[in-house]
Amino acid sequence: MRDAEVRRLWAANLLCAASVVLTAVVPAFFLDGFTVLGTHLTWLCVCSVCVGTLNVILCLVLKPSLSPKRSSLGNKISRFLKCCIYFFMSCILFHAIIVLYGAPLIESVTETFLFAVLLSTFTTLQCLCMLGPNIQAWIRVFSKNGATSIWENSLQITTICSILGAWFGAFPIPLDWDRPWQVWPISCSLGATFGYMAGLIIAPLWIHWNRKQLTYKSR
Amino acid sequence: MRLRSGVLAAGCLLLQALGVAIFLRGFFPLAVRARPRGGPRGESPPEPAPPGPGTVSNWTKIPPPLFKKVVIVLIDALRDDFVFGSKGKQFMPYTTQVIEKGTSYSFIAEAKPPTVTMPRIKALMTGSIPGFIDVVVNLNSPALLDDNLIWQAKTAGKRIIFYGDDTWVKLFPKHFVEYDGTTSFFVSDFTEVDDNVTRHLDRVLKREDWDLLILHYLGLDHIGHVTGPNSPLVGPKLREMDNILKKIHISLLSKEGEASLPSLLVVCGDHGMSETGSHGGSSEGEVHTPLLFISSAFEKRSGPLTQPELVQQTDLASTLAVGLGLPISRNSVGNLILPVVGGKTMREQLRFLHLNGFQLSRLLEENTPAYEKDPGYEQFKIAEKSHGNWIKLYLEGNNSEILMNLGKKVLKQYLEALKTLSSSLSKQVAQYDMYSMMVGTVIIMEVLLLLLLSVPKALSSRAEFEVPLSPSLFSLLFYLMCLVLCAVHVIVCTSAESLCYFCSMSWLTALGVMMLISALMCGILSAIGKILENSRLPVKNPVVSSSSWSEVDVLMLAGTIGHVLSLGASSFIEEEHQTWYFLINTLCLALCQELCRNHFLLKECDPQHGTSLKQNFDGIREASDCKNIDVPASGNSKLDKVASSAEFIKGSDKWLSLASPWIILICCRLLRSLNRTGVQWAHRPDFGHWLTSSEHKSELSFLAAVSLVMIFFLVQRRCSLVSKIAMALGLLGVYSYRAAIGNVVFPWQHDSKDISKGITEARFVFVFVLGIVFTGTKDLLKSQVISADSSVKSTGLWEVYSGLVLLAALLFRPHNLPVLVFCLLIQTMMTKYIWRPLKFDAAQITIMHYWFGQAFFYFQGNSNGIATVDVSAGFVGLESYVEIPAIFLTAFATYAGPLLWAIHLLCYLSSEVSRNAAAVGHGCFCYALMRSIPVAIYIVLVTGLRYHLFIWSVFSPKLLYEGVHVFITAAICLFFTAMDQNHSQKVQD
Ligand SMILES: [Zn+2]
Ligand SMILES: [Zn+2]
Asked: Which residues of B touch A176 (CB under 8 A)?
């Protein structure tokens, strides 16, 4: 049972990582002059959409949330709407935080907002998929020793890695190297993406190494 | 000997300040090559003697002048594109026409950083490259003692007239037969500074009784400082300058008779300006200035206009010396600009080049022991020899064709030699006194090591540290080290060829320093020994080391290390403010998370979880008890934190507490857009520039008034009644001072334009500052001597603090007053809603204070370049420049941010004493540690990077900032220790 679940986690995470890599390569065949650095905004859109859809599909297929409660259609729709609102709010919140960190307020709003969307895709969307619009559950997962399944552990790790990646991605901006990837928000979004991919790979490895200590309380 | 951690920290910082002083003295040698002028070698060399007997050259004297009159028009901050670029074509039509079609030579003169007026004037007139430290003494420019052009001209009996920046009058006192100095005190004055110069012009140009006229126009520089190079004010100013040049040129041409010598008009800039309009650094715009020679002696330009050639600014001195028939200044490293003398005969040209080369090689001889191996010197000797041959041929009356070709060859040889000589001389300016630097570094590193080794003891609840002074003082090791070091000292000092500061100190002082080094070393060794002894005890507690670290702790450690490492990259130094803003933002978010967790844990925390945590902490305590080690303060406070979350503040306070990190974040974001600093994004529009521009005076006045009222409300709540009244009057005085010097307006008098220096108003405020600080000190003394009441003491401390706030309000430019408001606001919110409820320990609070202090250093508009030091703060309330108060006021205004946060830290910690008796000691120790880590690492980095391209423009200014910061921190720590002393005495009583 446990091993099977770990294998499913591996598959899901590798799929996500592969999709990120593909978003950097595949659109070049359809769009003229597409490069991650050159047409960064397009890539941001493509990447957020792809990772987002993949996450939703994986969530529907694998059902890691272990809550197969039968619910009415109305309930489902309200949950879905709630999720959308939460996602949008998280985009706004990330945007605000990025501006507080010093991003220009008026210029390059699109860049900042798309970066916020990307970050939300890597973090909030996953949480929404796995935990639903349930703030209490989120707080539980993100407090110490709060994870109750390997999925939640993986969620913790990828979220933290994405945010840390974005954080570290800001470091090269002040350097005077005049490289194309130092333009706002490329280094940060690349940092977040690499962080996310690293998180996807680290999470199963970490679970594998700590499988002895991991004893989940039954809920 | 037992030392309390506060005393230890203060002592260590004092030693570190000593080390920094020695290091700085070695790093910035004062006037390496300043030799008194007019020594025994006043003679100029004769023409190289032709080989063989018989023929002797009759040219032994200095050649006669080439120009009768010379007018130097120095336009401050004239950038090359203002003349040669599109702006020049548009606004300087006459000059452009002269450049393109007239009899002129145009060059781009490269200024060496620091691109600040005084060192640039020195460079232009002496031809030498003044040391970096000249910038620091820029404030009071004493008379120039080096050999220079003005002095030579005066000695040769030339009559010199000067109008313009009074820096010249200070540099060359009694050199001018007539002068009118203008102070550049009011940077916002664009017209009067120049009218002051121009009003003399008509009269002087009519007269015949002068040989050298120097005009220094300041208006353009002021426009640049206030509004930047692209402002609409630049065009009219350039047009004004163009008209002046036209007037001078036409007048000079009309005076030239057939018989007499032609005259020369030189147009130059002392430095350029950056894209923001400031200067001091080494960006392209700052170092490139135009240099124009206009004279009827030159040939008309034939052929199309080419890009002006690049020359050095120092070349002007030698060229003018030749042009005026004067000896070249001895310290000059400049080359003769040959086209200027191109109209002369070959023999004369060679003669000039020989004079220049001779002077350069003389300079090299005096500065390098192995000068004979220098390639430039060798080239010069060869050129000199062929010059002799040429003269022989010339004197023999040889064919002119061959002679011309041969002469051109010699000319080329000379030019090569001059170039090599001057480049190898320029390199020598950056000679470091390595021995002094090493001594300083050793002291600093030892102190840092000692501080680091004493961390666990000093931060324990007893806050005491055992210094094994007496045993180590009598140990054999100590004496051995002293002996070895003294031997090294003697060897180094007897063998060193160059000047060494540490060797020139008296041997008693040197011995003292050696003993200090060895004592520190012994202290460190014994501390290490003790630690090893302790660690050999078998019981190890892994829980303490790992699980007691919260996110905030991790962030603080990572931030400190990351910041220190970032100092190795020049861009990170230029943009250091970004590092701090980034760190405090992250800190605020981490605090927010901590607050959320505290708040939600209360709701969520299941009893089981809570008890497990408690057990965990009890375990720590037991373990440490059985080890008989002091429980780390952080462990204690963690426990308190969990326990306290049960009675966590309720109601609106809770929500305020949750919101406060966000409010602080917003404040920081606003402040960040108030003053853009650094290099890369400094040109972006910011709120401060918008406010200071003359159209928005009423907005600025409103903002200043509101800020002053806010400051009053934020500061008064803990003051006594007398101080409250004094504070209110003082803040009123601040506003009227700003109104008097014309920064802000009173709403009821819009049009009155009488700008004064505001001496009375400023002194009025000073009286209140002193009054408030005095009341505070009186309270402090009272609390120490008479009553044991801690509330009196905290009132006293707060009053000292509010006095300093008032002083800062006076010294800050009006658009910076919001910085002060936000500083007070953030401190209030942090104290009330974050530190109190979260119960951080003293060390954490100190680090947060230090971070915020650093961020505020940049929020107030400072950067790591010298250009941003607000020198005008040193003149507040003073009639003229007075050294000591000016330095004190400037330093205070520059470091107001870190200083206010440090004093606030003291206020906060001394109110926390009831919770943790050793809080002040811990705070002092941490503060010292936070300061000494970056300074020690930075000094090592700078030593390693001393031949870096940006050493003068980026690393040296930062080094000065760091050094001054160490001195200030040492003073703060002494104050801390004094406050701590009182408390501990009281406890013992
Ligand atoms: Zn200047
Ligand atoms: Zn200036």
From this structure: 570-571, 574, 679-680
Q: Which one is predicted more confidently, B382 or B650?
A: B382
> What pLDDT, on the 0 to 100 scale, is given for residue B546?
46
pLDDT, mean of residues B469-480: 76
Residue B184 pLDDT grade (very low, low, confident, very high; cuts 50, 70, 90): low
**Per-residue pLDDT tens for B799-808?**
999 999 999 9
Where do runs of H (alpha helix) occur along B460-506? 469-473, 476-495, 501-504
Distance B72 CA to ligand 1 centre (A): 15
Q: pLDDT tens digits, residue range B5-40?
A: 788 889 999 999 999 999 988 887 654 454 544 544
Among all bound ligands, the one having the nearest atom to the CA of B221 is: 2
Q: Do A105 and B582 touch (CB under 8 A)?
A: no
Under DSSP, is residue B464 helix (H, G, I), strand (E, B) or coil?
strand
pLDDT at residue number B79: 92
| Distance of residue B566 Cα from the nearest chain A Cα, in angstroms | 10
Structure confidence at residue A219 as a pLDDT band (50, 70, 90): very low
Residue with token string 């005049």:
A178
Chain B CB contacts of A105 under 8 Å are 673
Q: Does A176 touch chain B (CB under 8 A)?
A: yes
Query: What is the rounded distance in angstroms from the CA atom of residue B904 to the CA atom of residue B718?
Result: 13
- Four-residue CA torsion sign, B602, B605, B611, B615: negative
Q: Tell me the CB-side half-sphere exposure of residue B412, using CA atoms within 13 A.
A: 6
- List the single residue in A with minimal CA-CA distance to B569: A175
CB spacing of B582 vs A143 below 8 angstroms: no
* Closest CA relative to residue B809, chosen from B885, B905, B710: B710
Long-range Cβ pairs for the range B524-529 (8 Å, 24+): B524/B446, B524/B449, B524/B450, B524/B453, B525/B472, B525/B477, B526/B468, B526/B471, B526/B472, B527/B450, B527/B453, B527/B454, B527/B468, B528/B453
- A140 near B CB under 8 A: yes
Distance B165 CA to ligand 1 centre (A): 9
Beta strand B2-4 with B70-75 is unpaired
* Separation of alpha carbons B481 and B692, rounded Å: 59
Residue B650's pLDDT is 59
Q: Residue B430: pLDDT band by 50, 70, 90 thresholds?
A: low
Q: Any CB–CB contact under 8 A between A92 and chain B? A: no
Q: Which ipTM was obtained for this model?
A: 0.92
- Which residue is closest to A142 within chain B, CA to CA? B597
Query: Is B572 a residue whose pLDDT tops 70?
Result: yes
Residues in chain B: 989
- Closest Cα in chain A to B603: A136
